[in-house]
Amino acid sequence: MSNPTLLILPGDGIGPEVMTEVRRIIDWFGDKRGLKFDVAEDLVGGAAYDAHGTPLTDKTMAHAQSVDAVLLGAVGGPKYDDLDFSVKPERGLLRLRKEMDLYANLRPAQCFDALADFSSLKRDIVAGLDIMIVRELTSGIYFGEPRGIQADNEGGRVGVNTQRYTTNEIRRVARSAFELARRRSNRLCSMEKANVMESGILWREEVQWVHDNEYPDVELTHMYADAGAMQLVRAPKQFDVIVTDNLFGDLLSDAAAMLTGSLGMLPSASLGAPAENGRPKALYEPVHGSAPDIAGQGKANPCACILSFAMALRYSFDQGTEADRLEAAVESVLRDGVRTADLMQAGDRDPASTTQVGDAVLKAL
Amino acid sequence: MSNPTLLILPGDGIGPEVMTEVRRIIDWFGDKRGLKFDVAEDLVGGAAYDAHGTPLTDKTMAHAQSVDAVLLGAVGGPKYDDLDFSVKPERGLLRLRKEMDLYANLRPAQCFDALADFSSLKRDIVAGLDIMIVRELTSGIYFGEPRGIQADNEGGRVGVNTQRYTTNEIRRVARSAFELARRRSNRLCSMEKANVMESGILWREEVQWVHDNEYPDVELTHMYADAGAMQLVRAPKQFDVIVTDNLFGDLLSDAAAMLTGSLGMLPSASLGAPAENGRPKALYEPVHGSAPDIAGQGKANPCACILSFAMALRYSFDQGTEADRLEAAVESVLRDGVRTADLMQAGDRDPASTTQVGDAVLKAL
Ligand SMILES: CC(C)[C@H](C(=O)O)[C@@H](O)C(=O)O
Ligand SMILES: CC(C)[C@H](C(=O)O)[C@@H](O)C(=O)O
């Protein structure tokens, strides 16, 4: 049987340097655990724009469609701020999500015990925090038509975007969330603004439908997204799995990530429909951005990207035990204090470099 | 000269009981400070629905248009959850905002020193926090057409809402924000998702235009709304005035409010265009909701609603000194420990009732 295939898209900013560490980890699993992958690498985002004038070439897009999993670093940076909307680095990422139909974005917000003091929240509010936000990723206002900027009839302009959700789009992401809830503590909270948006009413009704007809055993609650933002700040541990739309998910998952105090630790998975071979289309990426301010200096924390590969082991390759092994290795490195600057406090010893953290994870493995 | 006019709309849940205390304060200003108001009272939200089958009658709407300021308590409650969208309590509030053209929603997020320990955030992160969020309130996805739920062509349904902003809508709320920034620390941060939404690009460009042409002296920055949500959690004191659209403003201002740890303390003002007589159309309301779980029990904290009246003194009646006086009275009551249950910690003495807090504020005045 041929090896499973990976496409690596390091992207911009710190993307390439954190991905270098991930490749070493991938090699380790091939050498030591007999988990060999066929790995290819290509460009996305600003890096692709610089080389080809587009943030994602058709060739790379086709390649992404053909592999078992894509690993992405990060896209964007001030260098590209003035580019036209249609070729901004972000469009490359959005095209991957849309054309691969990766509708379920899994964003764990987990507070590592060794890092709880980095949170801006009090220790007892966040210690042990373990939330999974399931964000719809291929529809809603990110993709709805009509959209654009036009002249208005007052001599100015009008900017339009459309939030549009269908029954099917809502039900399929709800199913992903219910499945996860079943494997966790069997509780799901769905968030929208059904009090002001009809698309929110449909969202609420369809999630309820999936519950009543397919997952009546899971405890389902509904919350307005503004109240959700509040409750995430006030008492995040009340939540287990949260399901929400593309735009609310963008804000809420970032707020939730920040609660943990260690953005540099948080991975994400974007998954398509369950596949017969057990390998849904999938893209894995860290939650952090391209951090242009520290790019190229060996300061970036590779953990989020390494943990994204752990998610790939779990969700694409059914290697839960190996994923556990990798996650445990990262945690032990943290505990030992081998940390990049983002995880150091005044008075701590010198921060480790990106490579030193990679070394330490390999050693712990 | 005739007295300035106030329309009081207590609404639902704890609205009526907190408004009772505000009326006593209003009377005090009439008796002791010669600031007499002509006060009328009417129904909104679920209360109006129960009486008239609509969350806001045309008569009340017309009355609101004719007064100098509207004070609103809160709307909504589980009793009304199954009502049709068009008559939900919230529609009453949204109609007031829209028809009075109250486009600038001022939401201060201020952390009272005596209450900093109630925050879920560490004391040093929030002590002294004083942000003003200016939220656009009459446009965007709350009001854009087309909207609604229809059959789709897959045998299901499709829910649609439209985000639509014009040059004028953006510029006028930007001006409100720049004006406030000038009276504060001269810094404004504008938030949108210009990386994924064209309406966000227009927002950014028009805010920049107002800056360059009318307020070049104010320091303007732009931030993506998801990063904004993160930064509010991480280091809120970096912000002074924030301007953002209706939907982002809903989530971000609620998150910011929760940072302070004392939702029961936070007022808001919703203002229309500057008027020749110095009295823009205006509606004042607490940030908290109708809290149906404690309604009618004398437990509700009246401070947010009282402070909303202080905002009315400041923004509608040019009585800055009297507003300061009222705010100082509320703060001194807090410091003295006369507090409702939401501001008590385990081991504190018995909580004060809504009326007792009202009494104490009157005494402090
Ligand atoms: C980079 C950007 C397009 C993206 C988004 O808005 O979805 C990012 O913020 C994210 O959350 O993955
Ligand atoms: C009650 C509701 C319609 C309202 C809103 O979404 O604007 C509330 O959440 C607010 O922020 O004032």
UniProtKB/TrEMBL annotation, chains A, B:
Residues holding NAD(+): 77-90, 289-301
Keywords: Amino-acid biosynthesis, Branched-chain amino acid biosynthesis, Cytoplasm, Leucine biosynthesis, Magnesium, Manganese, Metal-binding, NAD, Oxidoreductase
Catalytic reaction equation(s): (2R,3S)-3-isopropylmalate + NAD(+) = 4-methyl-2-oxopentanoate + CO2 + NADH
EC number: 1.1.1.85
Cofactor(s) this protein requires: Mg(2+); Mn(2+)
Residues binding substrate, per UniProt: 97, 107, 135, 226
Compartments reported by the entry: Cytoplasm
Domain Isopropylmalate dehydrogenase-like as annotated: residue spans: 5-361
Entry superkingdom: Bacteria
Record: residues binding Mg(2+): 226, 250, 254
InterPro entries: IsoCit/isopropylmalate_DH_CS, IsoPropMal-DH-like_dom, Isopropylmalate_DH
Pathway as given in its UniProt record: Amino-acid biosynthesis; L-leucine biosynthesis; L-leucine from 3-methyl-2-oxobutanoate: step 3/4
Entries under Gene3D superfamilies matching the protein: Isopropylmalate Dehydrogenase
Coiled coil: none
Annotated GO CC locations: cytosol
UniProt remark on cofactor binding: Binds 1 Mg(2+) or Mn(2+) ion per subunit.
One Gene Ontology term of the molecular function aspect: magnesium ion binding
Annotated family: Belongs to the isocitrate and isopropylmalate dehydrogenases family. LeuB type 1 subfamily.
Role, per record: Catalyzes the oxidation of 3-carboxy-2-hydroxy-4-methylpentanoate (3-isopropylmalate) to 3-carboxy-4-methyl-2-oxopentanoate. The product decarboxylates to 4-methyl-2 oxopentanoate.
Name of the featured protein: 3-isopropylmalate dehydrogenase
